[in-house]
Amino acid sequence: GNLYVNERLDREEMCGESASCSVSFEALVHNPLNVFRVQVDIQDVNDNAPRFLQENFYLEINELTSPGARFAVGVAEDPDVGSNSLQGYELKANGYFAVEVKESQDGSKFAELVLRRALDRESEPSLRLLLTALDGGDPPRSGTAQLWINVTDANDNPPVFAQDRYRVSLREDATPGSTVLNVSASDADAGTNARITYGFGKMPAKVLQKFTVDAESGTIRLLEELDFEDTRGYVLLVEARDGGGLVAHCKVVVEVLDVNDNPPEITLLSLSSPVPEDSPAGTVVALLNVDDPDSGENGQVSCELSGEAPLSIVASSGGSYKVNNEPGIPILNVSATDPDLGRNAHLSYTLLQGNPTFGHLFSINRENGTLYLLTSLDHEDQVEFSMMVQVQDGGFPPLATNVSVSVFVTDLNDNAPTVLYPHPNTTAPYTEVVAPGTPAGHMVTKVVAVDADAGYNAWISYTLLQATDPSLFSVGLHNGEIFTARQLREDDAPEHTLVILLKDHGEPVLSTSATVSISVAEMVKEVLTDLTDVAPASDPRRHVTFYLILAVILVSAAFFITMLSVGIFKCYKWRQSKELYNSSRSTTYRTPGPFHHIDAVRGGFTPPSFYHQVYLTTDSRQSDLLCKKPFTSSPLGSRQGTIRNGEPGLYHQIVGTASRLPTPAE
């Protein structure tokens, strides 16, 4: 039940600018079957520095601009949240400008350049300033941008927008080309200095792909379709620039309204099929999850079952629903006979629950002895299932006989090879280093892989699929070892990438690939300069030693337990043989007639010539006959006590147990 992190988490990629970030999912629990909602909160770390959308900003400011005038400059972005997000700006010391931090209504911080002293174009026609954005992390991170200021002649009045902030709502099904909003600005100057053109300021590329603004009229139009489920709102930065180069800014907040454009999605979480016909009412046989990406009333769903069946659907937590279902797959028919007549010969079959988990896997028909498989089996989880079936007549008192049934699960090639080294999920590839002049036959590295299947399905072969220089390296077919095929020369490429193909021997063949990077260098330091961005903590090779030690411990423990079990078994057999020798006064009887063996493949009995003779002492009260077949097939498989039903992957073993022995008179 432990929950592990499967890959590196990136809060900014998962949740963007949201103040809170969490991942929700359902955890399915069997026996009893239920579902729980799990929510994992992702906490932010200061792993991003503030960054300006461009490295250089160009401003044109008239020399007659009065001290105290403000100019909006580039906004820095920091994907982190909270105290790790953007906190302020700093401006390198100069004699004309200072920077002040402003906060908009949505909480974002932007910088305003404030003129402290009047400009003089004749003395300084241009200025170059360094603007720094700082976050609140410990230690803080920063980003910089260059401000290039060109001092121009008299343009006394900058443009002024009618509103500093516009707000508009737009349905997500609005057609591309439709008008979003019209912004307007005025300029008190005359002539070319009063001619205003509109444009967008520096914004993310995905916003610029959605909207456009007419340079002459200030009309904002939609370019692409909106999706409320993807983005619920946009903030547009609009500029108005007059003929003299003065610029005014305003913000346009576009709110996207949800439209019911997504159908509910049904996901089958669990299905227990078939269902025994004697299952009590209220048995949960299926779990469903229904989700609608829309919001509000558009995202509320109701579920119902159609068709005629004794089933009902019940709402559970987290958008889940519970259902019933139909009976399943027959795998074996256990049959018995009773020479009595009438009710005394009426037989009923029961599956004795020696292991409580088998009740969820197998069931038996009480009337005809058909054994059903309720769910799929996995050879990698369990190879053999042993259970006891009891057949009982209808007499008084009732007489019963037990039969042991073993189900063997054969392996199917359902697992592809898994690469353990080099680890395929690392962000940066491993680089093996070999020196120039290395002779042919030198082992550079080894690809390590396993296959969860068994037997022939788990055999792995390695072939070189792709290489920078195919003549330089070779790979062992059965061990994955990579060797130099010839001596390395000075003129060989310094970097080599090998793609190794790993295939099993199952049917159908399953495969995977591994990528190995090899660097040719005199010293390791030459390669380390190219690997400075690789974090040593992410190297999974440090776990190989642990796995090897763990494997040695497990093998040693298994060997010790095996030897201990053999010793106990030998002692038990020696004691049993001694007791049998001491009971020399016991009289033996031979069971009359041949023992007929049930043949489930042919549906009858084996010839009388094929039988076993059983000798028992007078102290015996019960006789057990065990005929067990190994996994491998045999020409006499149908006559060696193993029933094979024709279902792929299933074998059955029957052990008969008599309730009593016939007396000598019988």
UniProtKB/TrEMBL annotation:
SMART domains: CA (SM00112). GO terms for molecular function: calcium ion binding. One of its GO terms (cellular component) is plasma membrane. Keywords: Calcium, Cell adhesion, Cell membrane, Glycoprotein, Membrane, Repeat, Signal, Transmembrane, Transmembrane helix. The chain crosses the membrane at residues 546-569. It is found in: Cell membrane. It is a single-pass type I membrane protein. Residues 1-52, 53-161, 162-266, 324-419, 426-538 form the Cadherin domain. Pfam families: Cadherin, Cadherin_2, Cadherin_C_2. One of its GO terms (biological process) is homophilic cell adhesion via plasma membrane adhesion molecules. InterPro entries: Cadherin-like_dom (IPR002126), Cadherin-like_sf (IPR015919), Cadherin_C (IPR032455), Cadherin_CS (IPR020894), Cadherin_N (IPR013164), Protocadherin/Cadherin-CA (IPR050174). It comes from the Eukaryota. This is PCDGK protein. It comes from Chaetops frenatus (Rufous rock-jumper).
